[in-house]
Amino acid sequence: MSNLSETWIDGFCRYLSAVEQASEHTVRAYHSDLVAFWRAAGELDQVGTGDVYRYLAALGARGLSPRSVARKLAVIRTFYRYLEREGWRQDNPARRVLAPRYRPGLPRVLTVDEMSQLLDGLVSNRTPLGVRNRALLEVIYGGGLRSQEAVDLDLDAIHWATGELTVKGKGRKYRTVLLGRPAMAALQEYVEGARSTLAARSSTTAVFLNARGGRLTTRSVRRIVKAALVVGAVRRNISPHWLRHSFATHLLMNGADLRAVQELLGHRSLRTTQIYTHISQEELGRIYEHTHPRA
C-alpha cells in the first residue's frame, strides 16, 4: 500500500470536513469506503474503469444490496472528481460506471399518536438531563432537524421573539427553521434552567450540552432517542432521523405545500422532498381504513 493513496484519501476527508462541512459520521464512512476500495482495487493512481466495475461486481456477489453498491459508487465517483479538481488525476474512472438500479425505500415514520407518546413520556423527568432530552427531541421533530444540525446549534441561533432557529445544514447552507409553541416552550425551559446547571463548568456556546458541560454528539442523540422509546413505551426501533421524516410527513398530511416543506428541510432538490408525498398518502389510507365507518 502506497503513501500516495493514503495521502489522497486523507486529503479528501479533510476537504469534506473543512470545505463541505460534512459530519464526522459522514467523513468516517467515506474514509472507510475508500480504504476498502483501495485494498480491493489497488493503488488509486492506477485504478481504471474496469477496476471500478470489478469492485462493484464483487460487492454484489457478496450480497450487498443494489442501494449500498450505488452508494459506494457515489463515494468513489466523488473522490475522483475531487482528485481531478486538485490536478492529481486527469480523469475520473468512475464517471461512466452505471450504478445498479434499485427502488428507493420509503423513509420510515412515526404516527402522530406515536410521536406524541414519545415526547409526552419525557415530561415527568425534571432532572437537568431530562429537561434537556425533551427539549432536544421537541426541537428535532418540531423543526425537522438532522441530528448534526441539532448538536451544532449555538445560543445565538435561537430567535426567541419569532420562534425561529438559524440552522447550518449540509454544505454550509444556512436556513431558517420555524418552531411551534411546544418546542419553543421546551427549549426556553431548558436554556433558562437546566442548561445553566450543565454549563456550570463550561463556557461553550452550544445549546445542547452533555453532563460534563460539553457539546452533545450525534451518538449521544441516538442514545437519548433509544431511551425515550423505552420511557414512552413506543414499541418501534427508530433512529433520530425518523423524527425528521415524521416532521415532513405530518406537515404534508395536514396540507402543507411541498415547496414549503422543501425549504424547511433544506433540500436542494424538490425531488428529494417528493418521496414524503408517498408516505403521507399511505398514512392517509391507513387513517381512512381505521376511522371511516364505511371503509
UniProtKB/TrEMBL annotation:
Q: Which organism is this protein's natural source?
A: Sulfobacillus acidophilus (strain ATCC 700253 / DSM 10332 / NAL)
Q: Which GO BP terms sit in this record?
A: cell division; chromosome segregation; DNA transposition
Give the family per the record.
Belongs to the 'phage' integrase family. XerC subfamily.
Q: What is the lineage of its organism?
A: Bacteria, Bacillati, Bacillota, Clostridia, Eubacteriales
> Is Ion transport included in the keywords of this UniProt record?
no
Domain named Tyr recombinase is located at: 105-289
Location(s) in or outside the cell: Cytoplasm
Please state what the protein is called. Tyrosine recombinase XerC
Q: Which PROSITE patterns match?
A: CB, TYR_RECOMBINASE
Its cellular-component GO annotations read: cytoplasm
Q: Where is the active site?
A: 146, 170, 241, 244, 267, 276
What does the record note on quaternary structure?
Forms a cyclic heterotetrameric complex composed of two molecules of XerC and two molecules of XerD.
SUPFAM superfamilies documented for this protein? DNA breaking-rejoining enzymes, lambda integrase-like, N-terminal domain
Q: Which domain of life is it from?
A: Bacteria
Function per UniProt: Site-specific tyrosine recombinase, which acts by catalyzing the cutting and rejoining of the recombining DNA molecules. The XerC-XerD complex is essential to convert dimers of the bacterial chromosome into monomers to permit their segregation at cell division. It also contributes to the segregational stability of plasmids.
- Residues in a coiled coil are none
Per its record, what are the GO molecular function terms?
Answer: DNA binding; tyrosine-based site-specific recombinase activity
Looking up InterPro entries in the UniProt record yields:
CB (IPR044068), DNA_brk_join_enz (IPR011010), Integrase-like_cat_sf (IPR013762), Integrase_catalytic (IPR002104), Integrase_recombinase_N (IPR010998), Integrase_SAM-like_N (IPR004107), Tyrosine_recombinase_XerC/XerD (IPR023009), Tyrosine_recombinase_XerCD (IPR050090)
Keywords for this entry?
Cell cycle, Cell division, Chromosome partition, Cytoplasm, DNA integration, DNA recombination, DNA-binding
Domain Core-binding (CB) residues, every copy = 3-84
